[in-house]
Design brief:
- Helix 6 (170-193) runs antiparallel to helix 11.
- Strands 1-2-3 form a 3-stranded antiparallel sheet.
- A hairpin with a 2-residue loop joins strand 2 and strand 3 (35-42).
- The chain has one domain: Cytochrome-c3 Hydrogenase, chain B (Orthogonal Bundle), CATH 1.10.645.
- The chain is built from 15 helices and 8 strands.
- The model has no long low-confidence stretch (mean pLDDT 91).
- By secondary structure, it is α+β, with helices and mostly antiparallel strands.
Length: 368
């Protein structure tokens, strides 16, 4: 009699403590040998009830909590919430404050992408890219510390403007950083982008089509890597982005390498935006005069911005008091993560780490 080999699917847990899960995330993976059959993200380990906390705090008091959602791009989270408050309360922002906000947001976008560059290398076994990315990120954090005294959670934006002006020496130090970062980017490409091992680990891995990405409501570089040129700064302009010259970065491959390349190329675009904003910044007021105990007129509003991870939206409902009646946060990390199962099905175990890393999720934003 001929014998037949019987095999069973192996159920494997990745996380919630594994460093390659980029936070407290559990991936429930089913394997047939080394081939992924299913991969389901299990979230909620960091759930803090942020949306409910908004109902218990005055509008100003909730700003520091928005720092702690996407904590790698806190300025952008600040802007999503502050923009919703300003839109509902019809608060006008002085032009100088808008320029300062854009400088802060784009510097924070670069800092976030530098973390992505470094951790993407770490996920695939390369340590030097992380050292490179953190080296330049320190320059950005020094600029933030000069401006608002903090290096990670900033609490800098206010309804109607910013809390304080740019300090003396900021312009020169920021210009020097821009020059330095542009000089270092070719080193990044030499080290990782053109590395043959990196290319073989990322090309045609975790492919998703433009149609599938749209169906999953993906956004940010993860969507633009499929060829869809959706960027909130362009399609629904806010602040002064429509006054500046910059390009929406897209790729067409829809694979892990394309998602990586989009973020690296966006660093270059953000440097251009910061440089223009520095050169064009007008004099004037920093903040629209609002009462310390701000009351927002009764109504509801939706406002969204383009964060480092995608389309961050805030749905805000006011009952006319000094606290939000309801708040809902659209988190792109959470939505992008929903496509992971389809992206890794049929791939190898090691590819799961590469694909997850290319989505660049932040678990504080996923769980809220």
């Amino acid at each position: 009699m001929s014998s037949r080999i019987k095999s069973e699917l192996l159920e494997l847990n990745m996380g919630p403590q594994h460093p390659s899960t980029h936070g407290v995330l559990r991936l429930a993976v089913k394997l047939d040998g080394e081939v992924v059959v299913e991969c389901h993200p299990d979230v909620g380990y960091l759930h803090r009830g942020v949306e409910k906390l908004a109902e218990m705090r005055q509008y100003i008091q909730f700003i520091p909590i928005t720092d702690r959602l996407d904590y790698l791009a806190s300025m952008l989270g600040n802007m999503a919430y502050i923009g919703a408050v300003e839109k509902l309360a019809q608060i006008e922002v002085p032009e100088r404050a808008e320029y300062i906000r854009v400088i802060m947001m784009e510097l924070n976008r670069i800092a976030s992408h530098l973390i992505f560059y470094g951790t993407m290398g770490l996920d695939l076994g390369a340590t030097t890219p992380f050292l490179y990315g953190m080296r330049e990120r320190e320059d950005i954090l020094d600029l933030f510390e000069m401006t608002c005294g903090a290096r990670l959670t900033y609490n800098y934006f206010r309804p109607g403007g910013v809390s304080k002006d740019l300090p003396a020496g900021f312009y020169e130090k920021c210009k020097a950083y821009i020059k330095k970062q542009r000089e270092r980017l070719p080193e990044y490409d030499d080290l990782l982008t053109g590395n043959q091992i990196f290319i073989s680990r990322t090309r045609n891995v975790g492919v998703i089509s433009a149609q599938e990405a749209v169906n999953y409501s993906m956004s940010g570089p993860s969507l633009r890597a499929t060829g869809v040129p959706y960027d909130v700064r362009r399609v629904d302009p806010y602040s002064i982005y429509d006054k500046l010259d910059w390009q929406v970065v897209t790729r067409t491959e829809g694979d892990t390498r394309a998602r990586y390349q989009c973020r690296v190329d966006e660093i270059r675009q953000s440097l251009n935006i910061v440089e223009q904003a520095l050169d064009m910044m007008p004099e004037g007021e920093l903040k629209y005069k609002t009462p310390l105990k701000l009351k927002v007129p009764e109504g509801e509003v939706y406002f969204h911005v383009e964060s480092a991870r995608g389309d961050v939206g805030v749905y805000l409902v006011s009952d006319g008091s000094d606290k939000p009646y309801r708040l809902k946060w659209r988190a792109p990390s959470f939505i992008n993560l929903g496509a992971l199962n389809d992206m890794v099905r049929g791939a190898k175990v090691a590819d799961v780490i590469a694909v997850l890393g290319s989505l660049d999720v932040v678990l504080g934003e996923v769980d809220r």
